[in-house]
């Protein structure tokens, strides 16, 4: 997707503060952090929303969670706790239409979120 911000981060056209990468997933710090640790985990494949996931994307979504686990460990928030969340569509706060998991930690998390 030539006009997608996160695709441009995957290709390197736009610079990201990368904290984790493998063949299928890229993770970088959120530009407007909402917690001491706020990392976005994105699949390298362009997928617009959770609603657009296919059966064949199941392992890719699993890799996003495994990346979250690894980054949480690197960030030393595994035991304290963290949130791993994806917003779907504008009503839930999605503003970038390339799926991404927010990994938030380093402070107490409130429930329910706003
Ligand atoms: P969402 O609102 O769930 O779609 O999340 C999009 C996130 O992308 C927000 O938390 C933004 O702060 C973040 N974001 C937007 N532009 C950039 C950027 N250039 N680099 C890193 N994070 C960004
Ligand atoms: Zn994209």
Please, how many helices? Answer: 2
Give me the CATH architecture, please.
Answer: 2-Layer Sandwich
Annotated CATH topology? HIT family, subunit A
> In the CATH hierarchy, what is the class?
Alpha Beta
Number of domains: 1
CATH-assigned homologous superfamily:
HIT-like
Q: Give the CA-based shape.
A: globular
- What fraction of residues sit in β-strands? 15-25%
Structural class: alpha+beta
State the helical fraction: 10-25%
Our measurement of the CA-to-CA distance between the termini, rounded to an integer number of angstroms, reads: 31 Å
Low-confidence stretches: none
Your description of this structure?
- The chain is α+β, with helices and mostly antiparallel strands.
- The chain has one domain: HIT-like (HIT family, subunit A).
- It has 2 helices and 5 strands; from the N terminus they run H-E-E-E-H-E-E.
- It has helices spanning 5-11, 58-74, and strands spanning 18-21, 25-29, 37-43, 82-85, 101-105.
- Strands 1-2-3-5-4 form a 5-stranded antiparallel beta sheet, with helices on one face.
- Strand 2 and strand 3 (37-43) form a beta hairpin.
- The longest helix is centred in the middle third of the chain and has 17 residues, at 58-74.
- The mean pLDDT is 97.
- It binds adenosine monophosphate and zinc ion.
- The site of zinc ion (ZN) has 6 residues, from helix 1.
- Zinc ion is lined by residues 1, 4, 6-7, 46, 98.
């Amino acid at each position: 997707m030539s006009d997608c911000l996160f695709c441009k981060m995957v290709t390197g056209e736009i610079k990201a503060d990368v904290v984790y990468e493998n063949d299928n997933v890229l993770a970088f710090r959120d530009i407007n952090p909402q917690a001491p640790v706020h990392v976005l985990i994105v699949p390298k494949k362009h997928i617009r929303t959770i609603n657009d996931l296919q059966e064949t994307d199941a392992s890719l979504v699993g890799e996003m969670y495994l990346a979250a686990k690894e980054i949480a460990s690197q960030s030393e928030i595994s035991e304290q706790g963290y949130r791993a969340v994806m917003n779907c569509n504008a009503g839930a706060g999605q503003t970038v239409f390339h799926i991404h998991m927010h990994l938030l930690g380093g402070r107490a998390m409130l429930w329910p979120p706003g």
